[in-house]
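Structure tokens please, single chain.
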Amino acid sequence: IGAEDRVAVLLDKSVELIVTALGVAKAGAVYLPVDPTYPAERLDFILGDCDAKCVVREPMTDLDGERSDNPTDADRVRPLTPDSTAYLIYTSGTTGQPKGVPVPHRPIAEYFVWFRGDYGVDADDRLLQVASPSFDVSIAEVFGTLACGARVVVHRPGGLSDIGYLTDLLRDEGITAMHFVPSLLGLFLSLPGVNQWRTLQRVPI
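Here you go.
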């Protein structure tokens, strides 16, 4: 697995997803996140269309005994450049079949520089992972946050719909940043307990 090899990752928001995404990036391969909750027909189309060299999904294979050190440029099966594809995101398909959109390393690296400068994210920040893995916002949530030295916090399954759990999580983990779409932000601001979210400093929408 190396540059321009597509690795489809069918994992829900989890520590395993983050570890897998970093592994794909370290190998220099193309990260293709696919939300496993998509309808079977959509999953079949994406997996049939994407030309993935490898598919990662649950149940996970036990990799004890495999290399755990970081790969170097000497380990790569082919050269990796700023113009190599970093990740592939499929469109929603609302106007037809979903289409895969490749994004090279160069613009995403420039975006991360902007992300850190514009939002002032640093090692003291903790961002709650919210977006579906199939949305490009999830790239910033994971890679952008870690590139700034900040921490990504993963909620339990179904945690975003449990306001009591979410309030406790934001307080206990000291969440400082959390993405919202405008409609969802309006809903959350109307919920009881929102005044306890005192650690939140950044709410990108």
